[in-house]
Amino acid sequence: MAQRNTWQRDRVRAALSGSPGFVSAQDLHASLRDDNTGIGLATVYRTLASLAASGEADQLQSPEGEAIYRACSSEGHHHHLICRSCGTTVEIQATDVETWAQRTAAAHGFTRAEHVVDIFGLCAACSEAAR
């Protein structure tokens, strides 16, 4: 079922697009609250889930286990390199991972296998700053 385009959905989408990296629903809600939008946390959660389901947003789990979101700039299946310090995110294609995932699934009798691979580390700038 298609989502109705409301002003709240547009504001959440705009706030997500304006975020430099992945952001939690609570952090996004805080920025919307600071702008006095009146948009509730439940609306932010529902909208982010809908944007992720439609492919307009990437959703993944942070190393701490929290769902985080980012406006998606690529179509189709892809992976991310994510800086644990500043949140810089790079979308990557990972052909070797795709091959490994399909081969591993098939070796165990699995079909229609799907996977999620995201790599967390420190970007070059944060690594240099840490030295």
From TrEMBL:
Required cofactors, per record?
Zn(2+); Mn(2+); Fe(2+)
Q: Which residues bind Zn(2+)?
A: 83, 86, 123, 126
User: Cofactor stoichiometry and binding?
Assistant: Binds 1 zinc ion per subunit. Binds 1 Mn(2+) or Fe(2+) ion per subunit.
What biological-process terms (Gene Ontology) are attached? negative regulation of DNA-templated transcription; regulation of secondary metabolite biosynthetic process
Give the UniProt subcellular location, in the record's own words: Cytoplasm
Q: Which GO terms describe its cellular component?
A: cytosol
Pfam families noted in UniProt: FUR (PF01475)
Q: Which Gene3D superfamilies match?
A: 3.30.1490.190, Winged helix-like DNA-binding domain superfamily/Winged helix DNA-binding domain (1.10.10.10)
Q: What keywords does the record list, in alphabetical order?
A: Cytoplasm, DNA-binding, Iron, Metal-binding, Repressor, Transcription, Transcription regulation, Zinc
Main localization is cytoplasm
| Residues that coordinate or bind Fe cation | 77, 98, 115
Q: Can you name one GO molecular function term for this protein?
A: zinc ion binding
Cite the SUPFAM superfamilies for this sequence: Winged helix' DNA-binding domain
Superkingdom of source:
Bacteria
Quaternary structure and partners: Homodimer.
So what family is this one in? Answer: Belongs to the Fur family.
Q: What is this protein called?
A: Transcriptional repressor
